[in-house]
Amino acid sequence: MRDAVAGVAANLAGTRSLAGLIDASARQAAEAGRVDFARAVEDALPSLRAADLSATVVTIQGPIRLVDYLITRCVEAVVHGSDLIDPVNPDHVAQAITARALLEVLAVRAPHLVREARQLSLPVWIDVATGRRPGSGSLAAAVPVMT
Predict the structure, then answer these.
(1) Is 126 among the domain residues?
(2) Does some domain include residue 146?
(3) Among the four 18, 22, 60, 138, which has the fewest Cβ within 10 Å?
(4) Please, what's the largest Cα pairwise distance for the chain?
(5) Contact 98, 126 (CB under 8 A)
(6) What end-to-end distance do the CA atoms of the chain give, in Å?
(7) Model pTM score
(8) Rounded to whole angstroms, how far apart are CA atoms 110 and 104?
(9) Distant-in-sequence, close-in-space partners of 8: CB < 8 Å, separation ≥ 6
(10) What's the CA dihedral at 133, 38, 73, 90 to 10 degrees?
(11) What confidence tens digit (pLDDT) does each residue in 46-100 have?
């Protein structure tokens, strides 16, 4: 398998160019009744527990280490869990993983603003970083880092 070329920050930043495709795919799956998160997690857990997290997987954006790919999926779940008709409130660990990943994206774009972003609470930073809430001060020009 090819070496990983995309890390967490690159993968998350690249989702913007795929937003339409991702949205259409998710909507089609939901309309077809193929969205059952609990079952999908239950089905995937045995394989994930046995997986080599340093292995490289190939995604639509290119190769990425499995651990980094799982972090990006956590970000998507936390960010879009609130979009569901019955919103999902993420636990603190998932919020921390998400906030840290979004800080990585900010560190690439505007490293001088990471300290300011870290001063926000996890849910506020996640909302600001994803454009669900406007940024203020110096952060306003650098966010959203992921939409």
Answers:
(1) yes
(2) no
(3) 60
(4) 45
(5) yes
(6) 30
(7) 0.81
(8) 10
(9) 68, 71, 72, 101, 104, 105
(10) 40
(11) 988 999 999 998 888 889 999 999 999 899 889 888 777 778 889 999 999 999 9
- Answer yes or no: are the C-beta atoms of 53 and 67 closer than 8 Å: yes
What's the domain count of the chain?
A: 1
Asked if residues 102 and 126 have their Cβ atoms less than 8 Å apart, the reply is yes
Range of the domain at 39: 8-141
114, 106 in Cβ contact below 8 A?
A: yes
Please spell the DSSP secondary structure of the chain, one letter per residue. -PPP-B-HHHHHHHHHHHHHHHHHHHHHHHHTT---HHHHHHHHHHHHHHS-TTSEEEETTEEEEHHHHHHHHHHHHHHHHTTSSS-----HHHHHHHHHHHHHHHHHH-GGGHHHHHTS-HHHHHHHHTTSS---GGGGGT--S--
Residue 133 lies in a domain: yes
